[in-house]
Amino acid sequence: MTTVREILDEQRAFFRTGATRPLEFRVEQLRRLQDALKAGENFLLQALAKDLGRPAPEAVVSEIAMVAAEIEYAAAKLRRWVRPQRRRVPLLAFPASGWIQPEPLGVVLILGPWNYPVQLLLMPLVGAIAAGNCAVLKPSELAPETSRALARLIRDTFSPAHVRLLEGGPDLAEALVSEPFDKIFFTGSRSTGRRVMLAAAHHLTPVVLELGGKSPCIVCKDAPLDVAARRIAWGKFLNAGQTCVAPDFVLVEEPVCEALIEALTRAIREFFGDNPRRSADYGRIVNRAHFERLRSLLSGGRVILGGDMDAESLYFGPTLITDVSPDAPLMQEEIFGPLLPILSFRHLDEALEWLAQQPAPLALYLFTRQRAIQERVLARTRSGGVCINDTILQVAARELPFGGLGPSGMGVYHGHASFQTFSHYRPVLRRSLFPDWRWRYPPSRLALSRLKCLARWLLRW
Ligand code: NAD
């Protein structure tokens, strides 16, 4: 059986041949991935339905179309991205030229989670290939059908010396992160992220950590409540709430709290009918352990809508919760499921003060028409990203880098940011061999005061 080290050695040897560097190779590999996605769409959708009860329309957009659009964008922009960037050099180095050239890192490791198992494994891969790297991928063992489908797709598309997918659980993941990869790109939970970073420290391997957190959603009284409710309910109950950037809880201005709850109730009924269990558009919880974890969170407040569930089919209904205790686990840990706590506030400043004391979340959502409030919230809060007057869509804006801050992660990707994440920006200074001024060499021939003047002048550009 091939060991992880042998796989790494094989990819390193391939990388050293320089085969991954030419622009044409990168674009060709991206196109191959695009064709494979198109050809394999049906078996990926079937696998996602089996693993997550994922409705096909939702899966097409959030898993397949996102990756296809990322490939299209990278292939179109790559010629520009790989171009060296000229930089001015100081007179001291004159005559000389300076530039920065993006270089591939080598062999990178990409570890994916189960909640968007296709998108979150292949989006970083697009950046890795575009930047000219070799890659080892490991999808989550908690979405086994999708893992198998992805293994087949990767095997049929790439040479294993260039891109290889390994299937397995935590044991394999631990074996992988203890190898000297040139970068580890990890998407998953905070606790596993910590383990990845510790293991990577041994080889000083740089890491990107795409983690989670409790993303707040602030609703001010001037917001159009029907639109806000629809957008919040859509972002929250997509994939049955198992989305890293789902609004975790709502903070609504007190005078409109009741009206927002009514609007959310209407939106949920509009989307999934009176019995969401029978809706073809509503997903399921990934496994029994997560189902039980969500059930235990229910005690953190008063259920005013939903709360219905079925352990057998892993159905957990869209649930609204009020009278939330701030110390309950519901408000202490990332919910990652279809439970939406609704808290109200009287003064925005108090709410912002409380938010500032919480760990920086992956996303922050705000519904208000007023620019002054938008600016105040931006100035007084911290988060990986922000979306004003909608939810989730910031992820699809590929010219906006995506990533967390502090406990919600480090490093960014999507679009150009992915290419940058998987590149080393190598600075190069090219000097002329003539003239070779003697005064720079010891022994010093100038008085200190004159040297200072000269240095100030020569170190300008
Ligand atoms: P997880 O941390 O349990 O697993 C993620 C990956 O890590 C899996 O491939 C798993 O096999 C692997 N792994 C397990 N043990 C490991 C170890 N000791 N060392 C290295 N790797 C190991 O996460 P999950 O349950 O699959 O995903 C849910 C979490 O991911 C949530 O917290 C969510 O917020 C977060 N998430 C973040 C993003 C983002 O983009 N920031 C996206 C999706 C999910």
From TrEMBL:
Q: Which molecular function terms from Gene Ontology are attached?
A: aldehyde dehydrogenase (NAD+) activity
Q: Which InterPro entries match?
A: Ald_DH/histidinol_DH (IPR016161), Ald_DH_C (IPR016163), Ald_DH_CS_CYS (IPR016160), Ald_DH_CS_GLU (IPR029510), Ald_DH_N (IPR016162), Aldehyde_DH_dom (IPR015590), Aldehyde_DH_NAD(P) (IPR012394)
Q: Which residues form the active site?
A: E210, C244
State the GO CC annotations. cytoplasm
- Lineage, top-rank taxon, reads Bacteria
The alphabetized UniProt keywords are:
NAD, Oxidoreductase
Q: Which CDD domains match?
A: ALDH_F3-13-14_CALDH-like
Gene Ontology biological process terms, A to Z: aldehyde metabolic process
Entry keyword NAD: yes
> Aldehyde dehydrogenase domain location, by residue?
4-426
Q: Which family does it belong to?
A: Belongs to the aldehyde dehydrogenase family.
Q: What is this protein called?
A: Aldehyde dehydrogenase
